[in-house]
Specification:
This protein has helices at about 30-35, 70, 125-130, 140-145, 265-270, and strands at about 25, 45-50, 60-65, 80, 85, 85-90, 100, 115-120, 160-165, 170-175, 180-190, 195-200, 210, 215, 225-235, 240-250, 290-300. It is mostly beta strands. It has a five-stranded mixed beta sheet with strand order 10-17-16-12-13, with no helix packed on it. Strands 9-11-15-14 form a four-stranded antiparallel beta sheet, with no helix packed on it. A three-stranded antiparallel beta sheet has the order 1-5-6, with no helix packed on it.
Length: about 300
């Protein structure tokens, strides 16, 4: 999920933030069906979600939106969540009510929801229009990014990903007599393409791959869940060793470490959300789908 390229503009979230728990509440689809929908262009319509309870950085309110088509799709499982892990929502997770959009960037799962609106275009909020977008690598700073914000789609489906949790970057590892070490981590499917069906590790910069054992999260009921995994590899002694991981999901999406570049705005618009293209560096560091990595390992 995270490889060392160069600094991004914003908070460094490391390997990112992910939540895997049980949510309970009515489906947004059922509430919208009951309320009735009156929108001319259903194809381009969005369901906008807003919280006015507090100011946020750069805006008087926080909001986001998802496509109406997604909200009305029963299989998308978009919830108006009232409970988390069998208990009422904690305040820090959105009490009394929040939205959960599984498989989608967490920025669309708005907490402390005050208003739900069906409208003909996406949310006007700053965090929908001018943040959480996979800008092209030509956008190297805030000034050069300005020309791309309106051309780049808002991040929705998250790409397939995997993370190596153990060992961590810079760890010193004492090699046992067997010459083998254990690698552990988790993997996430792309959007609604779960579950994760395969995870692999490489100790030779991706030339060869060894299958990992998926411990949980690969059943039919685990469409939205992470998959916990472990692998045993023969890592040679030495400094600056690196281990990579990649995942494959039920939809056939495979994590890749091959960067792509866009040579024109037209190509950018056509390819920026394609699942078969690895994401190169982007200014905000969002939606990165390079290999999982544990680097600078000292094996003694």
């Amino acid at each position: 999920m995270r490889t060392l390229l160069k600094e991004v503009d914003g908070i460094d979230w490391g390997d990112g933030a992910v939540m895997n728990c049980k949510w309970r509440g009515p489906k947004l689809k059922d509430v919208l069906d009951s309320a009735g929908i009156n929108v001319q262009d259903l194809k381009g319509a969005h369901v906008a979600l807003a919280c006015y309870k507090t100011q946020v950085q750069g805006s008087e309110w926080y909001g986001g939106s998802i496509e109406l088509d997604r909200a009305l799709r029963d299989s998308a499982d978009v919830l108006i969540a009232l409970e988390m892990n069998g208990k009422p929502l904690p305040i820090s997770h959105g009490f009394p009510v929040r939205i959960i959009v599984p498989g989608v960037s967490g920025c669309r799962s708005v907490k402390w929801v005050d208003e739900i609106t069906v409208q003909s275009e996406e949310s006007s909020n700053l965090y929908q229009r001018y943040d959480y977008k996979r800008l092209p690598p030509e956008a190297t700073d805030k000034e050069s990014a300005k020309q791309y914000w309106d051309l780049t789609p808002a991040l929705q489906d998250m790409p397939i990903n995997s993370v190596i949790a153990e060992p961590q970057n810079g760890d010193t590892i004492r090699l046992p007599l067997s010459g083998e070490i254990e690698i552990k981590g988790y993997a996430l499917p792309q959007g609604d393409q779960g579950p994760v069906v395969k995870v692999e590790c490489s100790i030779d910069e991706g030339q060869t791959w060894e299958a990992a054992q998926i411990l949980s999260g690969n059943g039919l009921e685990a469409k939205w869940c992470w998959a916990l995994w472990k692998a045993t590899v023969q890592l040679p002694k030495g400094k600056k060793q690196r281990v990579l991981s990649r995942a494959t999901d039920k939809g056939g999406n495979v994590q890749t470490g091959k960067p792509v570049r866009w040579h024109s705005l037209l190509q950018l618009i056509k390819t920026i959300c394609r699942s078969d293209d690895a994401q190169v560096w982007n200014l905000r560091g969002v939606g990165y789908d390079g290999y999982g990595e544990s680097r600078d390992l000292n094996v003694v």
